[in-house]
Specification:
Layout: E1 22-30, E2 36-40, E3 45-59, E4 62-67, E5 70-74, E6 80-84, E7 90-98, H1 106-110, E8 115-118, H2 123-135, H3 140-166, H4 169-187, H5 195-202, H6 206-217, H7 221-239, H8 244-250, H9 256-267, H10 271-277
Antiparallel strand pairs: 1-7, 2-6, 3-4, 3-5, 3-6, 3-7, 5-8
Helix pairs in contact: 2-3, 4-6, 4-7
Domain HTH araC/xylS-type: 179-277
Pfam family, one: AraC_binding
Keywords: Cytoplasm, DNA-binding, Transcription, Transcription regulation
Amino acid sequence: MSGAGLVPLPEHAANLYFHPPYVTLAHLFHAPRLWGISSRVLSSYQFQYVVEGAAEYEIEGRVILTRRGDLIYHSPAQVHEVRTFPEEKYICISILFDFGDIPYPVEQLLGPDRYLGNYAGHDVEKLLTQLITHYHQPGLAHHALCQGLLMQILSEVANWKQEQEAQTRGQQKIKTKMVLIRNYIADNFDRDIRHRELEELSGLSRNYIILKFRKAFGMTPFEYLTRVRIERAKELGIQTNMSIGEIAGQVGYADVHTFGRMFKKKMGASFSQFCSSMVTD
């Protein structure tokens, strides 16, 4: 990520209110093998969040390799290209939005760097999923929710970027260990993980791990384990014909009702609603 800081809003901006964004597209996209986009521009802003796999973006000549959890954006009329890899699938959440004829200082809010960070396990990931779920539901109430969720995403991303820039070197070292723990959980989600394993992996105590992991990712390590299992369930629900009971068993839940309650609590929609609302290409 670029070291450039966020561009401060002008002093008078504190008293300004802007037109809320209008979401013109929000869906989960499964890229076909060797899919890509060659040199296009859009009339809207676009968020692209990697759910699974990898893709290479080129935005105004800058190449950005994106993997699981990475979020990027580009602005209207900004030239961009997308390339996938033969050996890797690519599944992403794609959201297009604009602000009508009233300009909104998006770059001042998010900064000039089109790579916005990695949000695997972060609240931003949950908000993005909720947005695409509500986008495919009829009615003005869901439309209003989409606008609110998008504004919350913008705010969360801006705050996260500011926090990253304010971290000291020591804080960065601890954050690196938290990322190590997060990746370990993601790689071993299909079995029981003990606190002792995480202590041996990081050299930190159980309570300190819980405290710092929650500060870094907004949840405890075992709440993150639940999130990873649910993300895997979403993938199975979209890509296979397995029943909900079979999927629950695959991701570590012996009881389908426990899985259903957990999914709705974490994702804001039932598993059946999520699967039926997805648009795939």
